[in-house]
Structure formats: C-alpha cells, structure tokens
TrEMBL record:
SUPFAM superfamilies: Cysteine proteinases. It comes from the Bacteria. This is Transglutaminase domain-containing protein. Residues 328-389 form the Transglutaminase-like domain. Pfam families: Transglut_core. InterPro entries: Papain-like_cys_pep_sf, Transglutaminase-like.
Length: 463
C-alpha cells in the first residue's frame, strides 16, 4: 500500500460517507470498496480522499484480523476444551470478552480470541485446570514489587537479544530491504546502555536520547537471513507510595526536573487521530473527576476508573482502530497501549500533563511488547501509571499491586519509545505495521512493507 505520512493520519478523525459506512457495518466489504472508488471521483476535499484511501487499507486488512466463523471458533476452543459449546461463546460475547465483525452477513471472530479467553476468563481457566497457577514471570514480578516496596530503590541489569527475519515464502533473492529493530533509549529510568552485537550490513544506530530509538539495517539480500541486535542496560526503579498520606516526597535537586512552559503544552495538547478531546471523552472525564482540582487526585481518579472498569483484551492491529482511547472508553476493553492512551487523553483533558512510554516487558520468565503512561505532578515530577498491570491486579483482588502501578513501575522494562506516533530517524517508505509505536520491528523492500504475519520475530532474555 502507499505510504501515509504522519500528518495524513489525522484524517482518521473524519466520518466516512454514509453509503460506505453502511456497507462496512453490514460486512459488505466488496461493495464498500466499490463505493470508495465512486466517491474518489466526487468533488470532495483532498483530506477526505486521504481518509478514503486509508479505509481501503482497513477493508483489506480487517478480514485477516477476524478469520473465524462461529463454527470455526467453537471448533478451535474444543481442541482445548472438548465440551466448549455455543452457550459458552454466547456467554463470552455477553460479558464483552469477544470482539467480532460482520463479513458477508456472518459473524467473524478476532484471531486472538482463544488466547484472550484462556488467559483472562476464570471459568475457562478452571476448566483448563490453570486457574490461580503462577507462571515464572508472575512469580518474579510479585517478588520484585515486594522488594521494591521494602527497599524503595531497585536496579536491574537486563541483557536481551531481539531478531527479525522474513518468512521464506515471501523472500525473493535480490531484494533490497530496510529493517528496524527497537533499542533502549537513555531516558528517566534507563542508563548504562551497551550494544554488544548486531547483524552485518549498512547499520544506523539512533542517538541514545531518541524518543523512538531503533537500529536500522539496509541490505540487498542474496539469501534470506536474520537481522538481530544484542544489548544490555540498567533500569533503576524508585518507589513512592502515593496512597499513604504521610509518604515522604522525593527530594529534587535544582530546577532541571521541572517542565518548561513549552513542554507543558506538548504533554497537554491533542495529537490526532488518537489523542483528541472528543465530546464523549470530555463528558466522561468530567464524570470521573467531578469537582477535583488537585492534579494528583485527578490522575488517581482516572487510574481508578480504568483499572476497575476496563477489561484487559488482546486487540486487532492499532492501524485498524480509528480512535483508540474512545474505543476503550466506549467498549470498556483494551490491551496495555489502549488503556494507556485512554489514561493519557483523560489526563490531558483535565489539565494534567501526560505522556507515552513503551518497548518491552522483560524478565527471565517472559519477554514481550508492553506500553504504559507517565504523568507529571509537582512537586514529584514525572510519575508512572500502568493501567493494564493495575487492572490485572484488581481482577485478582490484589489491591496492593494495583496501587503500586499508580506512581511506580517494576524494573522489568526496555523503554524504546518515549512519545506516541513518531517517525523513524531512517525513514520508511511504506507505512509501518504499527504507525504509532515500534516494539517488535519492521521490514520493507523497495516495493512494499511486510505485514507481521510475513515475518518471524524473537526476543530472548540472556541474563
């Protein structure tokens, strides 16, 4: 597909012509595509044409995200749970746990529904015999949270190797490709970054203070090969109890920690298409916050709302969601990034500066993509909020851990991205898999960008 510039993504805030929207809602995607072609010939604004071109991409990709019919999804569940039935699927839908769309008059279910339900639904977990069992990752996390609360400061030295390669079926000899893999950036909690090894080729490594840090490889491939980077870094996590009235405020030296007026504006403004102050979100913010004027208490009320009301759910690709925070607020479900964006947007609506961080969650039990938020309150400075980790704690009745993730983070973080919706230093020709973030990597050739299902990625913890 054609390249969409960051500025052009703002067009996602525009409504589609009614004819196209009606076909889309009915699952008549072929008719919607034909209608788009007709509308492209009409005397409409160029910005709406950009929106229509993007909708062509969405209509092409949505069926890939929702591959299973009702019969197929039940059969998939029955491979793990033989007595899974139509009644079970109906319950899951009614409890807002199953995302689906219409395709050609028939319901189609999201590709990650089985994983979502097996990970999150207590009844299904009991039938699988895994309810309440701790994974190695969770055991490590619980111990680290306790240690941090006791010691107040904990450091971790983390050693990772991440890699990416094209699947053999899409590789062609002579391809000229460009590869991006995320790297830890030296901001706030992260320091002592060392790149220990990386694949050969023309290599560009972003500055350590990049907000969207990556290593870029450019090469012409005679044979398919793996691109990798190995690095280590230190994370320092400092604990502050924002729930204890007599908690000691960290001492700040000098004035460097304070946001300038310009920085305040950056972290308070809208950022289309997703961080926007829609009528519904403004009303919701008002209902959540009420008459509260203190910034810390405003942020706390927003955090409480999300952790207590929003269910964690694996998502379709972010590039297919038109307004991520509003999706979360209207559907009361979302993954880590969706929840973080709702927190950020509601904070900004209420005048509390808030920003984005993301990269990997990494310990010896698990390494995978993760997103969270920062918010700024004087005299503390920058604080953290991880609504999805807090919400997971709330779901199992762990109030101590839920409270921990308002103000604090565990040290198991590789933070590559310190702003939402940025561009790579070595620019891509085609739109990224995720146009808003970089966690697993990107590959493109001279003729197209490759989708996630056309690549193989690996993340290995080496400590």
């Amino acid at each position: 597909m054609r390249q969409f510039e960051t500025k052009e993504l703002e067009s996602l805030a525009m409504e589609l012509p009614e004819e196209i929207q009606q076909y889309k809602l009915a699952g008549e995607f072929t008719k919607a595509q034909k209608a788009i072609k007709r509308w492209m010939e009409k005397p409409i604004a160029e910005s709406l044409k950009v929106r229509l071109r993007y909708e062509q991409y969405i209509l092409e990709e949505l069926p890939k995200e929702f591959p299973y019919t009702k019969e197929e999804i039940i059969e998939l569940f029955q491979e793990k749970i033989p007595n899974f039935s139509d009644k079970d699927l109906k319950r899951i839908e009614e409890e807002n746990l199953a995302e689906w769309i219409y395709l050609n008059g028939e319901k189609h279910y999201i590709h990650n529904l089985l994983r979502n339900i097996c990970d999150k639904d207590e009844e299904i977990q009991e039938r699988l015999g895994i309810y309440g069992k701790l994974t190695e990752d969770k055991r490590l996390l619980l111990a680290k949270v306790r240690e941090l609360q006791e010691k107040k400061t904990v450091t971790e030295k983390i050693h990772l190797r991440t890699s990416i390669r094209l699947k053999d079926e899409v590789f062609q000899p002579g391809m000229k490709i460009k590869v991006h893999l995320p790297l830890p950036a030296q901001w706030y909690q992260t320091s002592e970054i060392e790149i220990l090894d990386h694949a050969a080729g023309k290599v560009t490594i972003d500055d350590e203070r990049s907000r969207y840090r990556s290593i870029c490889f450019e090469d012409t491939l005679k044979e398919n090969r793996t691109f990798y980077v190995e690095y280590q870094y230190k994370v320092q996590a400092d604990y502050i109890d924002l729930w204890e009235k007599n908690s000691e405020i960290p001492k700040r030296k000098g004035e460097d920690w304070k946001l300038t007026t310009e920085e305040q504006q950056e972290y308070l403004c809208e950022q289309y298409p997703h961080i926007r102050f829609t009528p519904y979100l403004k009303v919701l913010a008002e209902e959540i916050v009420g008459d509260e004027k203190r910034p810390l208490e405003i942020a706390r009320k927003i955090y409480n709302y999300i952790t207590e009301k929003v269910q964690y759910s694996y998502m379709k690709a972010y590039s297919l969601i038109l307004d991520i925070p509003q999706y979360c607020a209207r559907n009361l479900r979302g993954d880590c990034g969706v929840q973080a964006l709702l927190f950020i947007t509601l904070c900004r609506i209420c005048g509390v500066p808030a920003g984005w961080q993301s990269g990997l969650y990494a310990n010896s039990g698990y390494v995978g993509p993760h997103d969270w938020a920062m918010f700024y309150v004087e005299p503390y400075g920058w604080l953290y909020a991880d609504p999805s980790f807090g919400g997971s704690a709330y779901a199992v009745g762990d109030e101590n851990r839920r409270r921990f993730y308002f103000g604090n983070l565990d040290p198991y973080r590789m933070t590559a991205n310190h702003a939402f919706q940025q561009e790579f230093a070595v620019k891509k020709q085609f739109m990224p898999i995720d146009p808003y973030d970089n966690q697993s990597g990107e590959i493109e050739s001279e003729t197209r960008g490759f989708a996630s299902y056309e690549m193989e990625t690996e993340k290995i913890f080496l400590n």
